[in-house]
Amino acid sequence: MEKRNKKKGFTLIEMIVVVAIIAILAGIAVPQVTKQINNSKKSADIANAKTIANLIQQQIAEGNTIAESKTNYSEVTSTVLNNNTVPQVKYKQGYVFVYKLDIDNNTLIVGVSDKDTNGIKQEDVITLYPNVGSGY
């Protein structure tokens, strides 16, 4: 009796087909994962803006002095938040949380803006509280 040598394994064509299928699946999945990551960063920034607004309102209710900024936005600092840590903006790299406070009219706006050596770029502010502005 003669034994036949059977070759075991996959052919080159089978391997190419498998790699092509994996590439197609990755091409579909990666943009969706990236979109979800960006959405979660946006949601985190909006939640942080609400928390900052609540902390500022608490400071005012307790009678602490908060610097008013009726016309221009000011950067949120740990001093404004009663020595609480200011969170970093997650979605827009290089941006900082800013606020505009008018106690007389009882208005508080919290947003994010780009900051350079000259300070806050007032024209780049995107509001996150009380309403989320366009571009976010």
TrEMBL record:
Keywords: Membrane, Transmembrane, Transmembrane helix. The keyword Membrane applies. SUPFAM superfamilies: Pili subunits. InterPro entries: N_methyl_site, Pilin-like. The chain crosses the membrane at residues 12-30. The keyword Membrane applies. This is Type IV pilus assembly protein PilA. The lineage of its organism: Bacteria, Bacillati, Bacillota, Clostridia, Eubacteriales.
